């Protein structure tokens, strides 16, 4: 299929990098303008310096070949003033890329280097620092493939599919690791927002936040054959943050995944039914549902907390509303063939809202062990109706403000 599309490409734009480390953004933008339809854009085997924001949307049938590195500048003052907002959780981006029938190939070594250490040291763990840019926003993009790319030291979230559909992300390596005492907060591996039919396959994510997060109105999301290290795991949400706004998550499947020293394997985080503060770190009062969620064939190694967790009391600040007030309903979660080791019981903590109890959670072949070799057996539940394959044990789930699905 790639061959059939390539023969129709009428033009090639090869971008020549500057020789003195000057800003290559003007040349990059010119190439995307000249080759925005039925064309090929080539980054040669050199380093390109990206010192200013890029908006390269509206592409149609374009191959993008990255043979070495895009290196973002460390001018924090500039990026905070110029990053491109996209209207959700006050988030902004260093690069908007979008269109139809895009094939972005890094061949296993094409790298987007966000120079993230300067950001980790600048924000010092502060959550959702205003205008801190994401590395890449895949904007209004359809029927496209991103493959063989490497993302290192992302500035914030690594890549977000926004208002997009029918996308394959395959053979992508992401590593955002701090070399100082400052954490890599908000370095999500990938996020989906207002997007449908997104497939993440053969992903490797090493980071300090969500490995992959499905956010508002994400449907038919598939995550397969991947390895997640040191982050928080596969997240549904956060969601329900906007007062009076209806949002959904539906048909989310993660299977054939290895988790190494992540906090959780799969977890859900919704905001309370009471708005306390404003996004990005406050909010609540949204409603809707998450349903048809499948976690299957997980191998977990030394997880730092429960493999599965659900909190309807999300907050990214010290303020929190009534944890039993959320009207966002979670139902039909299936957990199958889970094995490996965890640091402590319980296997799961499900803190569902009394105002909209969770429904229909099912497990099959869950076998995880504690460090001493004994089988973990605890299932903590609050306001969960309908369980198959497990019994809630030892009292209710912990209830309190959470940014990570627990207390």
Walk me through the structure:
One of its GO terms (biological process) is carbohydrate metabolic process. Belongs to the glycosyl hydrolase 28 family. It comes from Hyaloscypha hepaticicola. The protein has helices at 2-6, 25-34, 76-82, 117-123, and strands at 11-15, 37-43, 47-50, 54-66, 69-72, 84-85, 92-93, 95-113, 133-134, 136-139, 142-152, 159-162, 165-175, 191-193, 196-206, 210-214, 218-229, 233-239, 246-260, 266-271, 287-303, 308-314, 327-342, 348-351, 358-369, 379-382, 384-388. The protein is globular, with a radius of gyration of 21 Å. The chain is 7% helix and 52% strand. The model is unreliable at 1-5 (pLDDT under 50). The chain contains 4 helices and 27 strands. It has 2 domains: 1-183, Pectate Lyase C-like (3 Solenoid), CATH 2.160.20; 232-407, Single-stranded right-handed beta-helix, Pectin lyase-like (Pectate Lyase C-like). The N and C termini lie far apart (49 Å). The protein has a 24-stranded parallel beta sheet that branches. It is mainly beta and 407 residues long.
Short overview:
The chain is mostly beta strands and 407 residues long. It folds into two domains: 1-183, Single-stranded right-handed beta-helix, Pectin lyase-like (Pectate Lyase C-like); 232-407, Single-stranded right-handed beta-helix, Pectin lyase-like (Pectate Lyase C-like, 3 Solenoid), CATH 2.160.20.10. The chain has helices spanning 2-6, 25-34, 76-82, 117-123; strands spanning 11-15, 37-43, 47-50, 54-66, 69-72, 84-85, 92-93, 95-113, 133-134, 136-139, 142-152, 159-162, 165-175, 191-193, 196-206, 210-214, 218-229, 233-239, 246-260, 266-271, 287-303, 308-314, 327-342, 348-351, 358-369, 379-382, 384-388.
């Amino acid at each position: 299929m790639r061959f059939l599309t390539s023969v129709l490409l009428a033009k090639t734009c090869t971008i020549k990098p500057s020789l003195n480390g000057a800003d290559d953004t003007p040349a990059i933008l010119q190439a995307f303008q000249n080759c925005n339809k039925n064309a090929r854009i080539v980054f040669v085997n050199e380093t390109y310096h990206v010192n200013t924001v890029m908006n390269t949307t509206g592409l149609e049938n374009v191959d993008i070949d990255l043979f070495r590195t895009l290196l973002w500048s460390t001018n924090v003052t500039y990026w905070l003033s110029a990053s491109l907002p996209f209207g959700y959780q006050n988030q902004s981006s260093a690069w908007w890329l979008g269109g139809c029938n895009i094939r972005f190939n890094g061949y296993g070594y094409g790298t987007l280097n966000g120079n993230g250490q300067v950001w980790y040291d600048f924000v010092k763990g502060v959550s959702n620092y205003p205008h801190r840019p994401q590395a890449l926003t895949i904007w209004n993009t359809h029927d496209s493939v991103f493959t063989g790319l490497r993302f290192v030291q992302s500035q914030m979230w690594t890549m977000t599919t926004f208002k997009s559909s029918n996308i394959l992300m395959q053979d992508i390596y992401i590593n955002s690791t701090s070399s100082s005492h400052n954490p890599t907060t908000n370095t999500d591996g990938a996020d989906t927002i207002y997007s449908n039919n997104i497939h993440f396959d053969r992903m490797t994510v090493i980071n300090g936040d969500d490995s992959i997060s499905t956010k508002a109105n994400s449907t038919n999301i598939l995550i397969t054959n991947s390895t997640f290290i040191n982050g928080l795991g596969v997240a549904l949400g956060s969601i329900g943050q906007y007062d009076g706004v209806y949002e959904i998550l539906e048909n989310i499947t993660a299977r054939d995944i290895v988790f190494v020293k992540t906090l959780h394997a799969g977890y859900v985080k919704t905001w309370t039914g009471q708005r306390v503060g404003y996004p990005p770190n406050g909010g609540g009062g949204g409603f809707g549902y998450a349903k048809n969620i499948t976690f299957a064939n997980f191998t977990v190694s030394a997880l730092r907390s429960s493999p599965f967790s659900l909190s309807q009391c999300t907050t990214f600040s010290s303020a929190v509303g009534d944890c039993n007030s959320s009207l966002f309903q979670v139902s039909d979660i299936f957990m199958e063939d889970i094995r490996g080791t965890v640091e402590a019981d319980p296997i799961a903590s499900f803190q569902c809202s009394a105002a909209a109890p969770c429904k229909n959670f099912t497990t099959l072949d869950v076998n995880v062990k504690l460090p001493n070799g004994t089988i973990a057996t605890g299932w903590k539940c609050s306001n969960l109706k309908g369980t198959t394959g497990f019994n809630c044990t030892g009292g209710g789930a912990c209830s309190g403000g959470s940014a990570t699905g627990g207390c």
